[in-house]
Amino acid sequence: MDRLDELEAQSVYILRETYREFKSLVMLWSIGKDSTVLLWLTRKAFFGHVPFPLMHIDTTYKVPAMIAYRDRLAREWDLNMIYGKNSAVLEAGETFPKGKRTRLQCCAELKSNALKHTLSGEWPRWQLNHKTGEYDIYENRAPCTGVIAGARADEEGSRSKERYFSPRDQHNDWDVGDQPPELWNQFKTDFAPGTHIRIHPLLDWTELNIWEYIERENIPIIDLYFDRGDGTRYRSLGCAPCTSPIKSPAKNVSDIIEELRSGALSNIAERSGREQDKEDGYGLESLRKEGYM
Question: What pLDDT sits at residue 98?
Answer without folding.
Answer: 82
